Amino acid sequence: MPLIPFGEYRPDVSDYEASTERDAQNVVPRADGFGPFPSLLALSQALGGQCRGAFQAFKPDGSVVVFAATATDLYVLNNITFGWTRVSQGGVSYSAVPPSDQWRFAQFNNLVMAVQANAVPQVYDITTSIAFANLNGSPPPARYIDVVGRFVVLSGLLSNPQRVQWSGLNDINGPTSWTPGVNQADYQDLPDGGFVRGVAGGETGVILQDNAIRRMTYIPGSPIIFQIERLSQDKGLFGPYSLVRAGEHVFFYSSQGFQRIDPGGFPVPIGRERVDRTFLADLDTNNLQLFLGSADPRSSRILWAYKSVNGTTNQFDKLLCYDWVLDKFTTIKVSGEYLLQVAQPGLTLEGLDAIAPGAMAVQGTANNGAGLVRVQVASTAALAGRPFVSLSGVTGTTEANGNWWITVVDATHVDLQKSAYANAYAGGGLVGGSVDAMTQSLDNFASANPIELAAFDPGHMLNFFRGPLLEATLESAEQGTDGRRLKIRGFRPVTDAPTLYGSASARETQQQAVTAGAEILINPITGKCDLLKDTRYSRYKVRIPQGTAWSFIAGVEPDTIATGKR
């Protein structure tokens, strides 16, 4: 039988006898159909509250520093324990970020900057700082930050939301870095177009307002510093955090739907008569802070996370995936708090001890009476048969940190052989777990890792998309034969998925509601879903269970005849 392909996901238009479909969930586009998408797998411990922003920075040696924010505090990730250390200025919480906003970050050389409307712009030197500090030069509080050429650009200013302001050339943290007229630092007030909702950085900048889009181009030697020209009128940014820059391309959501700007080009629609109407009907427009865009650094995909109208408070619950090379959309059902791209911090083998199974907190230390360090833990049961452990993070009795042969004393104490107790315990510390008991490959913990798509889950933990493949569902366009009845005897899915359930819907007229069919497990001998249904119109649906290993699905080959024939 001829193949009915699982065509382009295009829910805005009718799918009768079409090359499009209404349902493509938990899959990503491929040239030959669709492929799987993985679930989240936690890496870090829980943040101190709901994630309200996150960012990765790179040190000169290539190592990664990961920052995250709650409504009132800033944190840095411990690359050994994967716990979070608060690095708010002076250890004091900030005024809370507005409910409709997020913290935003940018890196310039070794400096990481963090901004939100209710705080002075913050700065952290990733080579020397132990906490954030006020950015020098008195820059104004701002909602958004980006780097254009060798300038840092602030927008969404609390004092003047129609202004963009930039730092001095190659100077962002000096006493005059933000003084207009000094070292090319300046600002520009935009007379129309509404509030500035963000700037897409790069060698040139793209300014996105409520109802206008402008390009800012640096002109060396010119007194105007940046030439600002209009790209679009009556088209702007709806959802500030939907703005994504992928290479030289800019993607965003406007009041007229999803848009794309190519290098040197103008905004062009990519979702019209495809996903725009369906998406807008599903988007919770009262929670645009959860409408978050990110480029997948390992593919040509852009993903937009958003809270649906029926979603859980303070969480996004869906992703819209767009492959800009294949020019195709799909949907993914995943819940979380924040979407970003990040590289997993590298670890040494010693560092793996802290996250391996059996890791436990130190509860105290003491002299064992013979001069050795005695360590108290909740239970020594997990240390049975493990004569060698690693300790880290102990304060006070810092001589306990390191690798030790141990003697189990009782149910809650061990002695560190050949140690020398000298200092009273002040807190903290971790007894490392067993690397041999780890289920993840050690290849996942290289000293340097490529950037991946990541998300903070509802439990405030940083996750990578490395878990079991999500349950995938796809449904063909509706089939019919000019109103004549069909006898459906089954269909053969064209896929390498070993486990799959198939069903066929039914309705007698185009005006009736669709009745879903019962699921049938694929026959492992024939590769066919056998069923029997008599109807005029039908869609073929497949469901691949979560955790099934598969790589592609192209469509179905139906087994049908006209009713009354054999």
Number of strands: 48
Q: Give the % helix.
A: under 10%
What's the overall average pLDDT, rounded? 91
Strand content: 35-45%
User: What is the CATH top level name of the domain at 4-36 and 471-562?
Assistant: Mainly Beta
Query: CATH fold name of the domain at 4-36 and 471-562, please?
Result: Jelly Rolls
The main pleated sheet reads as: 7 strands, antiparallel
Global Rg: 28 Å
Low-confidence runs of at least 5 consecutive residues: none
Oligomer: single chain
CATH level-two architecture of the domain at 4-36 and 471-562? Sandwich
Features:
2 helices; 566 residues; Jelly Rolls; mainly beta; flat; Elongation Factor Tu (Ef-tu), domain 3; seven-stranded antiparallel β-sheet; five-stranded antiparallel β-sheet
Topology (SSEs and partners):
Elements: E1 4-5, E2 8-9, E3 20-21, E4 23-25, E5 27-30, E6 33-36, E7 41-46, E8 54-58, E9 64-69, E10 74-77, E11 84-86, E12 104-108, E13 111-115, E14 122-125, E15 133-134, E16 142-148, E17 151-157, E18 163-166, E19 186-189, E20 196-200, E21 205-209, E22 212-218, E23 226-233, E24 244-246, E25 249-254, E26 257-261, E27 268-269, H1 276-282, E28 292-295, E29 301-306, E30 318-323, E31 328-332, E32 338-343, H2 349-352, E33 360-361, E34 364-367, E35 373-376, E36 388-392, E37 402-408, E38 413-416, E39 430-431, E40 451-456, E41 461-464, E42 472-475, E43 486-495, E44 501-504, E45 520-521, E46 529-535, E47 540-544, E48 553-562
Parallel strand pairs: 2-3
Antiparallel strand pairs: 1-48, 4-42, 5-6, 7-41, 8-9, 9-10, 10-11, 12-13, 13-14, 14-15, 16-17, 17-18, 18-19, 20-21, 21-22, 22-23, 24-25, 25-26, 26-27, 28-29, 29-30, 30-31, 32-40, 33-39, 34-35, 35-38, 36-37, 36-39, 37-38, 40-41, 42-47, 43-46, 43-48, 44-45, 44-47
